[in-house]
Structures are given as structure tokens and as C-alpha cells.
Amino acid sequence: MKRYTIKDLARLLQVSPSTISRALSDHPDIGDKTKKRVRQLADELGYKPNYLAANFRKKNSKLIALILPEINMFFFPSVIKAFEEKIHQAGFSLIVFHSNNSLEREMENLELCVQFSVDGILLSVSSQTSNLEHLSEIAGSIPLLLFDRVIPNDAIATITIDDRKVAYQAVEVLMKKGHKKVCGLFGAPNLHISKERAKGMQEAMIDYGVTPESDFIIYGTKKEVMTQLINLFDVSRYPTAIFAMSDDLLVGIYQLLAQHQLSIPDDVAVICISEGDSPDFFFPKVTYIKHSGEEVAERAAQMLLQLIEKKPLLNKNQLIEPQLVMQDSV
Fold first, then answer.
1. For residue 265, is pLDDT > 80?
2. CA 239 to chain centre
3. pLDDT band at 113, cuts 50/70/90?
4. What pLDDT score was predicted for residue 116?
């Protein structure tokens, strides 16, 4: 079907496009007879306003973009839901982009944000993103906020948790239970979030007089991490406790321990950083540090809306305070 424009309506009614535009917006300068003719023709032709073009002219799209590095069943779904609800209440609509952990795709998504004239961007960086040079120009023209996977900086606002502190807190639970052989599972090694959580784990062990074993600190994708963990088990290098930095890795741990007929927590203790739902899916229920996607999204929406409204942030680098939830896996 042909999409009719204001120019088409103007040509058919032999009036100017500005007359059509003002008639459709019920401008008082346009007579009732003309308004009726315009609306009748618009209805007959199925005319729909081109909001994107109109918003581009106004430089106000009422769109906010959310760029995610991956889409799985953990953390990010609750971020999407809570963030959309908050910005919708403020009169904005959400566009979700997926970088698939690719810097090139991340840059393509950012270019689309510029083309769509979005009013703000919430971004969690890809595993290939090592610096923020590609964001410098955009950050100067579109309000931008980094969350969860961030790169520390002084120019772009961020919201995250204190990754090192949270990992320390989790592993300290294991140390207080007397564990000496603790294995830590982490994401891509170049990510700030992975580095900080690994540092927190090692610092907790050292503070309790335990020397971290290098092959018990594992980085990579879920598949890579689980392959390395399986290799340890195949040569009978069993940890007495496992710390997982995410829900995604937690699922793999339970599958592996079940295959080796190891019980939790009698043979191996398990603790993780979690959004909060998956620990209750397992038996026994998992002890975890709650990193709420909903709380992150609500705070992120508040911060980004302030930036859009050109209101200064009292603190550009905000931290969420997660809570320890003791259950049955330690």
C-alpha cells in the first residue's frame, strides 16, 4: 500500500502542505470547512503522520535507546522491563539494540541512534570494547549513560556495582567456612567487570591466608569457562568451592557437578552474583549476592532522564549496593 504524505494531500486538495499540516493539528487559523475536507481525505486514504520526520525536525524523538551486549534469560530481561516502564511513565518509548558482544555492531547501533534522533542512550558495552573513543562525539550531542559493563571514566556517567567489593564479599563467605581450594568463574578477561571481580576474589583469599591457584581463576565465554572447568575435573583437580560471577555460569556449574555426582554443599560449595531468580530454581538453593536488574534500571532511568532534561547529576558515577542472601549451597 502506498504511504500518503502531507504533500499528497495538499496536491489532491490543491492547497499548500502547511495548510494540511495545520488543519490536521486543528490550528485556529484554518476554517472548519477546510479542516473537514482535509480530515475526510486523510481518513479515506489511510494517511498516517510521519512522526520520525516530524521529530527529526523538532530534534525531539521521544525515543530512548537501550544497547545490550547480549540477550539471555538472566539480568537483562529485568533491566528491559523496568527501564521501559520508567521511561514510559515519563512519555518516552524504548528501542532495544543488540551488539552481540561486537564492537563493530555496537558502533552500528550507535549510528542508528543518531539517525533515529534518540533523546538518550543507555549502554552496556560489548566484550570487545576496550575504550570509549567511539563514544566521545555521541556523548557530546546525545545524553549517554553506561551501566553494568562499564569502563571507568570522568566524561560519561555510569551506574554499576562495586565489582571488586562484591566479589570480595562473596568469597569472604567461603573463606569463613574454611575453604582453601576456591575456583572463580569470570567473563571475558578484557572486561573491566571481569577483572574487578577476579581481583576481589583473590584479595579475599589472600586476606584470609589462602593463596589463589592460577588454574582456578577461569575467564571466557560460558562455553570456554565450562570447558576449562571440565578439564580440571577430568584430572581430579576438584575445588571445594566455586564462585560464579553471573547467573549464566551458575547454570553450567550445577550441570557439571551433577554429571560428576558431586553434591552441594557437602562436596562443593557454590556462591554467585545473581539477579535473584535463578538461585531459587536449584536444589539446594544457592547463596548469592543480589544484583538487581530492576534496581539498576530504575536508577539508570532516573539518571538518564535528568541528563535529557539537562539537569546536573550530583554524582556521575553511581553505585548500587547489593545484598548478601544466605541460602543452602555454602
1. yes
2. 31
3. very high
4. 87
pLDDT value of residue 56: 54
Domains in the chain with CATH codes: 6-49 (no CATH), 58-161+293-322 (3.40.50.2300), 163-291 (3.40.50.2300)
Using CA atoms, how far residue 157 sits from 39, 67, 218, in Å, is 46, 15, 30
Worst-scoring range by mean pLDDT, 43-52, 179-188, 257-266, 303-312?
A: 43-52
pTM metric for this prediction: 0.83
SS3 letters across the chain: CCCCCHHHHHHHHCCCHHHHHHHHCCCCCCCHHHHHHHHHHHHHHCCCCCHHHHHHHHCCCCEEEEEECCCCCCCHHHHHHHHHHHHHHCCCEEEEEECCCCHHHHHHHHHHHHHCCCCEEEECCCCCCCCCHHHHHHHCCCCEEEECCCCCCCCCEEEEECHHHHHHHHHHHHHHCCCCCEEEECCCCCCHHHHHHHHHHHHHHHHCCCCCCHHHEECCCHHHHHHHHHHHHHCCCCCCEEEECCHHHHHHHHHHHHHCCCCCCCCCEEEEEECCCHHHHCCCCCEEEECCHHHHHHHHHHHHHHHHCCCCCCCCEEEECCEEECCCCC
Cβ neighbours of residue 60 under 8 Å, at least 6 residues apart? Answer: 117, 119
* Cα pseudo-dihedral 234, 239, 243, 245, rounded to 10: -30
- Mean of the pLDDT values across residues 245-254? 91
Give CA–CA dist 117/142, Å, rounded: 9
Distance CA 233, CA 260 (A): 8
